[in-house]
Amino acid sequence: MIERSALHPAFILHRRPFSNTSLLIECFSLSHGRFPAVAKGAIRGSSASAGLLQPFQPLLIRWSGRGEVKTLNFYEAAAPNMTLQGQVLYCGFYLNELLVRLLQREDPHEQLFGLYGSTLTKLSQGKSVEPVLRRFEIELLDQLGFGLVLDRNVEDGSPLVPKQRYHYQIERGPVPCSNTDPSGFSGATLIGLRDDQPLDRASQTEARTLTRYVLRYYLGDRPLKSRELFRASREK
Amino acid sequence: MAAKSLLDQLMEALRCLPGVGPRSAQRMAFYLLERNREGGLHLSRVLADAMQRIGRCERCRTLSETELCTLCASPRRNSNQICVVETPAEVTALEQATNYEGRYFVLGGRLSPLDGIGPREIGLDRLEKLLLEGAVEELILATNPTVEGEATAHYIGEIARVKGIKVTRIAHGVPLGGELEYVDGGTLLHAFAGRREY
To answer: Distance between CA atoms of A217 and A194, rounded to whole angstroms?
Structure first.
């Protein structure tokens, strides 16, 4: 049961206009996970608080309601908005899309909430984007119970060898493959990902291919829309 | 079940308007039938006409009943400047409030991956073609100061910058007649960062 008076830390993952002046928002809260809510009158005129109900703004919120869609009763900023700009903003959309697609509603993930917040902070500080995204993807999968096996060869349980190349079998783990197989991943990449070490350029590309491959399995056939933004900006 | 009476159908149809619930729909229907049949007939004719004939301008994608909207067809408008907005309503708002003399481009939305709206859905391929024609010198980004609006602005800005076109963004700041004390932090931050020599 929700305590009536308590304020809960939350982010908004998505918002869309609803009836005349309201917003239908998708909240991601520390204590109650992801759920939809209606913010009544949130876009009326030049309401000073309307700017707050946006993605990437750390909020404190209070809501009520028993049905699936809650009513947002109160909200205030918990911290200044994470200023994500340009490319980094696309990354933010990517994180949100992953959460909306992979998280069950009303399934609290306190650690994931912390991870999301710290990932946004890192992005807003202008850190190199790729390693931050990889860490998020890997920990997200971990938290959801789909964690990658990155410490052993699942065929015989032996530790990974940096020079060896491996195939990654989904829901199973790395199995050795021939060193010339282009669809394999180097042991060094897998070990680097496990230990959260900086990766060299080739390994970064490999790591991206790996997480993308695994995520595609859990996301199903519908591709992630936010990737289109990256793709197009790379083409230019 | 008996077929719905015409009166019921009318009330139900009126409810497709924003902000009209069953109660107001009933009032409108009775008003038109009892007090103002002529107005009702006129409305029905114009409504049918407008729904069938108003399409999108080929150049700027705003609502228009001709192939080119009046703004795009006007020889007096300056085609060196293009102002990018999200909706046709914003074209009207800008036209009424400013003395801008360039042309517009209406996106009809904003980049929002979670709604399935990507670059293609908001007609950016057409905007790119427009920029390639070469007459454009300045692209004014007038998308809304929301997260999605910013992403859209950035995305379009990149396209234009590659083509060597000057890109400007409308200013965000304290509303006229507003008081700093009551302005939200984000706006104030923008206003402060974007201060100008005075």
So the answer is: 20
Task: Name every chain B residue with its beta carbon within 8 A of the beta carbon of A81.
Answer: 185-186
Nearest to A210 by CA among A159, A154, A150: A150
Interface contact flag, A55 B147, Cβ < 8 Å: yes
CB distance A210 to A187 below 8 Å? no
* A4-77 topology per CATH: OB fold (Dihydrolipoamide Acetyltransferase, E2P) (2.40.50)
For residue B65, report the phi and psi dihedrals to the nearest 5 degrees. -95, -10
Residue of A nearest to B185 (CA): A80
- The predicted complex's ipTM stands at 0.77
Given a cut of 70, whether residue A29 has pLDDT beyond it is yes
- Give domain limits for chain A: 4-77, 87-235
State percent of chain A over pLDDT 70.
Answer: 92
The predicted model scores a pTM of 0.83
Residue A167 sits at the chain B interface (C-beta within 8 Å): no
Q: Does A233 touch chain B (CB under 8 A)?
A: yes
pLDDT > 70? residue A234: no
Cα distance between residue A182 and residue B98, in whole Å: 59
A87-235 belongs to CATH 1.10.730.10 = no
Give me the residue from B113, B158, B186 closest to A81, CB to CB: B186
Among A100, A101, A50, A112, smallest CA distance to A75 is for A50
The reply to whether A85 touches chain B by the CB within 8 Å rule is yes
Half-sphere exposure of B119 (CA within 13 A, CB side): 22
Q: Residue B176: what pLDDT?
A: 83
Q: Answer yes or no: do B184 and A48 touch at CB < 8 A.
A: yes
pLDDT digits (tens, 9 = 90+) for B156-170: 998 898 888 999 999
Residue B83 predicted with pLDDT over 90: yes
pLDDT of A48 > 80? The answer is: no
Q: Verify whether the Cβ–Cβ distance B147 to A77 is below 8 Å.
A: no
Check CB contact under 8 Å for A229 and B151: yes
* Distance separating the N- and C-terminal Cα atoms of chain B: 73
Would you call B182 and A48 a contact, using CB atoms and an 8 Å cutoff?
yes
Nearest CB to B184; choose among A13, A19, A49: A49
Tokens 């997480």 belong to A211
Q: Give, for A168, the enclosing helix (H) or strand (E).
A: strand A165-169
Decide if A93 touches B, using CB distance below 8 A: yes
- Which of B114, B150, B158 lies closest to A233 in CB terms? B158
Q: Give the model's pLDDT for residue A235.
A: 56
